[in-house]
């Protein structure tokens, strides 16, 4: 950790008329105790600790000014030392991993009015950037005191920005979270304030336990020759023998976006699958077989198919274990299962439908947005299938995908439909369908689809 750099920034980057930081570059337990005891009760001091903290709140200090050995100070002793100066401390900032346990103890047992600290491990660069933002926000003190609530929220935005940068580079989602214990604003705890992106759960698994690594029989299911399907239509055609579950073609992108609109996160083990795809397409594989992030395709739940995308690049396909993680279903055996009746997408559609019928307009909008992407993907797939049929080379796997996707698009259309007003005296003649089995126009002459399932 570059702690001296953090200390220098606190001293030089913040205006001296607002802050006057006194830095202890080689802090020992004795120095800490001595300086805390010296604080006058009206000091209004900010105490800033940058360093290592254990999960139980134990702090790591230097044993002496030589800086060659460390000394641990138990959290109970830290609390007793700070308690002697509690009235003098306006705010304590513990800028180290796992410091939330200690922060809560200082608030509840030592009587410190405001404590900024961390839940989980925290990266050095992000820790420094976040507290700098916090202090900058407090620099202009209002007549009534410091606006801690605004400062913490701005710091959380800074953290979110830094996390997003890491994710887009293909690195694992940083999982630290900022905590603020305060008698003035009330506690401001993590929640989703800095983790509200499409970031799924982090499993913290090593590569050896990521999932299945062997060949999967359904991974290379291909259409016989879909590349001429979009010829002359303005749509980009697929490569010869393009995989049905390709993550690197137009329809694959549309289907992935549709799934995201329904709330599914394309993350496995804290890594963005989409970042992995971008790294592969932009930079390819390194000589050691890894991506520029240092991770293999397998870490991202991806692998190369046998079909070429362009010179030097192949189509990427999803591994089965990754699909199971993304859609939280162990019953998925192939990509088409995601779109099948009673599959994870339809289950989510039904949930959003119930919420929409209860008046939740946001849920209805999610359905409409998802349908737009799925409809676009379906148009490409249907054009490819039509061309393959004309050549007599249509493939059963592609036919199944078109069938499942068509059914899902119609189901979403039904789920997003606004309730119809029932005329006085009953349904009356001329109404299409009913509550028990609504008929959905599929855009073709005489074509209709009926969902036999029970409706609300």
For this entry, give a set of tags.
456 residues; alpha+beta; elongated
Tell me about this structure.
There is one protein chain. With 456 residues, the protein is an alpha+beta fold. The chain has two domains: 3-182, no CATH class; 207-423, no CATH class. It contains 13 helices and twelve strands. It has helices spanning 3-12, 29-38, 75-83, 100-110, 124-138, 148-168, 250-261, 273-283, 320-326, 336-339, 344-357, 361-391, 396-416, and strands at 45-50, 59-62, 70-73, 89-95, 114-119, 177-182, 267-268, 271-272, 302-310, 313-318, 439-441, 448-450. A hairpin with a 6-residue loop joins strand 11 and strand 12 (448-450). Helix 3 packs across helix 4. The protein is elongated and about 90 Å long.
Topology of this structure?
Layout: H1 3-12, H2 29-38, E1 45-50, E2 59-62, E3 70-73, H3 75-83, E4 89-95, H4 100-110, E5 114-119, H5 124-138, H6 148-168, E6 177-182, H7 250-261, E7 267-268, E8 271-272, H8 273-283, E9 302-310, E10 313-318, H9 320-326, H10 336-339, H11 344-357, H12 361-391, H13 396-416, E11 439-441, E12 448-450
Parallel strand pairs: 1-4, 4-5
Antiparallel strand pairs: 2-3, 5-6, 7-8, 9-10, 11-12
